[in-house]
Amino acid sequence: MEEDPGGAIITMKAKDQRENLSPSREEAMEEEAQGGNLSSSFSVAPECHREGNHHPSMEASQMTTTIFSTIVIMLLSSAIAAQSSGDVGGKPKPTDFMVGACKNVSNFSRGHNEGDKYVSQEFCISTLQSDNRSANAKNLHDLALIPVDILKERVVTAGGNVKNMLHNTKNSTSSTARHLRICELDYAATASILNFCDALMRNYQGERSAGHDDDKPLFSKLPECVDKVYEVSSYCAIALLDMPGAEALLKESHQLDMLINLSIALLAPYKDLES
C-alpha cells in the first residue's frame, strides 16, 4: 500500500498544532482558576464589610423597637397603678360608705317613689361614680352635692331646649306655646332654688339640732331645700303631659325627677336628726 506523503505531512502539522495549543489551554485554565480565586475573595469582602458596619435602616428599626417597648411598659404600669388605686373604667371604685348610702337610698325610694320614679341602688352608685368626689365623700351631704350639681347643668340644658321649641312655635297663643312657657318659667325657678340648695350644702360645716343657737343650718334644711326643687319642677312635667309631640321633653323631665329623687333619698336621714 502506498503512503500518501501529503497525508503524512498533514498529520504531522495537526499534531504540531495540538502540541502548540496545549500550553495555551493550560495557561487559560490556570487563569480561570486564578480568576475564580479572585472572584471568591471579592465575594467575601462585602460580607466582611457588612459585619463591620451597621446599616442605617437597621439602626432605625432597632430604635423604633426600643421606643415601642418603652411605651408598652409605661402603659402597662399606668394601668396597673390605676387598678390598684381603685379606678374602674375611668370611674372611682365604689367605697363602702357609698354602697351603704345607696342601699339606704333604694330602701327609702321603694317606700316613697312608685313605678319608673323608683331609685335603685345601681342607679345611685352609677350616678355618684360619675364624679370623682364620691371617692372621698365622708357624709351624706357630700354625696348629695353630686346629683345636685348634675341637676344644675341638666336644668339649664332643659330650659334651653324649651326656649328653642318655643321660638320655633308658629302660633304664640296655642296650647303648645302656653305649656312651653310654663316649662320655661318652671325651669328658671328650679335653677334658682338649686343654686340656693347648692350654696347651703357647700357651706354646711356640721350638724346641729333644734334648740342650738348658732349659724349652722338645721339638719332638716338640707332635704327640705331639695324637696322644694321637686315641687317646683313638677309643674313642667304636668304641663308636658297635655302637649302633643313632647316626648323628648318628657324624657328629659323624667331624668331630672330621678336626680331629684336621688338627692332627696340621700338626705332623708337628716330629717330624723332634728331632735
Word description of this protein:
The chain has 275 residues and is mainly alpha-helical. The protein has two domains: 81 residues; 182 residues, Butyryl-CoA Dehydrogenase, subunit A, domain 3 (Up-down Bundle). The protein is 73% helix and 1% strand. Strands 1-2 form a two-stranded antiparallel ribbon. It is extended and about 80 Å long. It starts with a helix and ends in an 8-residue tail after the last helix. The N terminus is likely disordered. Keywords: Disulfide bond, Signal.
Strand content: under 5%
How many strand elements?
2
Return the string of H and E elements. Answer: HHEEHHHHHH
- As a whole number of angstroms, the C-alpha radius of gyration is 46 Å
Tell me the name of the CATH class of the largest domain.
Answer: Mainly Alpha
CATH topology of the largest domain: Butyryl-CoA Dehydrogenase, subunit A, domain 3
Mean pLDDT: 76
The biggest sheet amounts to:
2 strands, antiparallel
Poorly predicted runs: 1-16, 18-23, 35-52, 78-86
**Count of domains:** 2
CATH superfamily of the largest domain: Invertase/pectin methylesterase inhibitor family protein
Strand line-up in the sheet with most strands: 1-2
End-to-end C-alpha gap: 160 Å
Number of helices: 8
As a percent range, the share of helical residues equals over 70%
Shape: extended
- Quickly give the structural class: mainly alpha
